């Protein structure tokens, strides 16, 4: 949600990929891909954003905290990031999502968006449930 130098962004992508592989993720057993290369993520985020009201996003604590750290000039990308997260979850019709305590409200937003979409257009998205870790 913050502008990055293109060269630094490319290097961060490579570093993150290397770290994921170093942790033992086996690309023969799971899909590893760059989300930004899958246009359906952004397309679904746009559709879901058209179903999400701004006051709901403004109430999210992460928006308030990050906006404060950006001198009260939060960006549209920062505000709508939880909708992109919902699209990331719903695009794959996920039924269970591992989340930390700090992301529970974002998952609840994804649940609400799925329910709203299903009510308006018919049952399409499963309503994802949180998998909370004790760690």
TrEMBL record:
Keywords associated with the record: Aminoacyl-tRNA synthetase, ATP-binding, Ligase, Nucleotide-binding, Protein biosynthesis
GN (gene name): Wars2
InterPro entries: aa-tRNA-synth_Ic, Rossmann-like_a/b/a_fold, Trp-tRNA-ligase, Trp-tRNA_synthetase
GO terms under biological process: mitochondrial tryptophanyl-tRNA aminoacylation
Protein name: tryptophan--tRNA ligase
Family: Belongs to the class-I aminoacyl-tRNA synthetase family.
GO function terms (MF aspect): ATP binding; tryptophan-tRNA ligase activity
Transmembrane segments: none
EC primary class: ligase
Manganese listed as a keyword: no
EC number(s) recorded for this UniProt protein: 6.1.1.2
GO CC annotation terms, alphabetical: mitochondrial matrix
Superkingdom per UniProt: Eukaryota
């Amino acid at each position: 949600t913050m502008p990055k130098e293109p060269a630094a962004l490319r290097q961060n992508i490579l570093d993150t990929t290397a770290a994921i592989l170093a942790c033992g993720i086996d690309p023969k057993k799971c899909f590893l891909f760059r989300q930004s290369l899958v246009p359906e993520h952004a397309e679904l985020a746009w559709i879901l954003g058209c179903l999400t009201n701004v006051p709901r996003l403004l109430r999210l604590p992460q928006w308030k905290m990050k906006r404060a750290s950006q001198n009260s000039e939060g960006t549209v990308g920062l505000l709508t990031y939880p909708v992109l997260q919902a699209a990331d979850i719903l695009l794959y019709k996920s039924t269970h999502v591992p989340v930390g305590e700090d992301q529970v409200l974002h998952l609840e937003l994804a649940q609400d968006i799925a329910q709203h979409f299903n009510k308006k257009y018919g049952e399409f998205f499963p309503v994802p449930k949180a998998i909370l870790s004790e760690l």
